[in-house]
Amino acid sequence: MYDYRIVEQVSRKKKHMSGALRKVMVIFAVLFVLMGITISQAFMLPGFLLALLYFVYDIFSQRDYEYILENGQLTIDVIYGKKYRKTAHVLNLEEMEVTAPHYHEKVAKYKKNSGTEKLKKYDYTSYEEDVPYYTMIIREDGRKIKLLLDLTEEMLPIVRHWEKENIQVDALYSGYVGSDAQFPIIREVFQRLRRKDTLIMVDPVMADNGRYYPGFSPKTAEGMRTLCEMADVLVPNMTEAAFLLGEEYREGPYDSAYLEYLLKKLTELGPKKVVLTGVYPRENQLGAACISREDGEQIQWVLAQRMPGMYHGTGDIFASALLAALMKDLALEDATRIAVDYILDCIRDTDPRQEPRFGVNFERSLAALGSRILQAAEGTITK
């Protein structure tokens, strides 16, 4: 087990009225003191009280948060006026239930207005609009609490710690990117951790069904393209493929000529291998199409029976299963087939009465997925 200590500070953005309020307090304090000198000493007391209130307000309106991650323990300190420190939480990360972007379905049930489970909330974010924040659900003194945290700036300190400990990785995999500020950080992570045989997969999560997800725009696609330049494997859906190429989204069914055009154009962005998801030549089919520059750029269709319903998270699960198979040196077509079949199993295992935003039941077939990948790697799988 490695010993580690990572420290990061987040500065709370001051409210718009704080500067004006300070000026008003100073003006009235000076006014009361002058009135105390010229009219009556009775005005001196409120003048001095306002001056004292100004200094107290000045200290407590300036707030920084320090996250200290050390050997499985998260400590959060609040620093007032750059001088006075108070420890707000000391948390055991083994008691953490989930940490996810605040908009993610994994924390949807804890939302203030639309959620089903109400928890005491602690906000330790910067209030900066362009900095995404994360929701952490964790137990403190036996009860669950909700923490709001800025974690973007934690990424590079963690990577530097891994470098210090000489921790090496076999694969790097990026998915949902919470803000444009994270793209250069992810590129640096790729550069720092990549070795000659490290596999980099980019899943450009940003859009579906012909439109960007809330909070995303063509600027997001620009950032994603900078990651594609460093990718070995790219896994977009049909909408993301069109937006990465700066083209209009086309509804299916899709023919071979159009898929070949998209796949070859996507390889020009940088990746050696591309897997397009959500493709179908007929309405009763759904699956993926893939291309590998290492295998002569021949297009491969990998299709399955279309299942009824729409489920959140299947793209994430597909890409993860694909990466697991590729890490066992399977050919791209074989790895794609395993991922497509696994998604089909997950949907079949999911109760149709379940709310779609809770995703699919991927756990039930997880062991079978592992066995199938190992069998394929050993050449014993039955196709």
Architecture overview:
- It is a single chain.
- Among the domains are: 18-61; 162-378, UDP-N-acetylmuramoyl-L-alanine:D-glutamate ligase.
- It is built from ten helices and 16 strands.
- It has helices at residues 18-38, 44-61, 155-164, 182-193, 218-228, 238-244, 256-267, 314-326, 332-348, 366-378, and strands at 5-11, 63-70, 73-80, 84-92, 96-101, 120-124, 134-140, 143-149, 171-174, 199-202, 207-208, 211-212, 233-234, 273-279, 285-292, 300-305.
- Strands 9-10-13-14-15-16 form a six-stranded mixed β-sheet, with helices on both faces. The chain has a four-stranded antiparallel β-sheet with strand order 1-2-3-4. Strands 5-7-8-6 form a four-stranded mixed β-sheet, with no helix packed on it.
- It is elongated, with a radius of gyration of 27 Å.
- The protein starts with a strand and ends in a 5-residue tail after the last helix.
- The mean pLDDT is 86.
Strand segment count: 16
- Looking at CATH, which topology of the domain at 162-378 would you report? UDP-N-acetylmuramoyl-L-alanine:D-glutamate ligase
Largest sheet: 6 strands, mixed
- CATH architecture tag of the domain at 162-378: 3-Layer(aba) Sandwich
Tell me the distance between the termini: 41 Å
CATH class label of the domain at 162-378: Alpha Beta
Short overview:
With 383 residues, the chain is an alpha/beta fold. 35% of the residues lie in helices and 24% in strands.
Secondary-structure blueprint:
Layout: E1 5-11, H1 18-38, H2 44-61, E2 63-70, E3 73-80, E4 84-92, E5 96-101, E6 120-124, E7 134-140, E8 143-149, H3 155-164, E9 171-174, H4 182-193, E10 199-202, E11 207-208, E12 211-212, H5 218-228, E13 233-234, H6 238-244, H7 256-267, E14 273-279, E15 285-292, E16 300-305, H8 314-326, H9 332-348, H10 366-378
Helix pairs in contact: 1-2, 3-4, 4-5, 8-9, 9-10
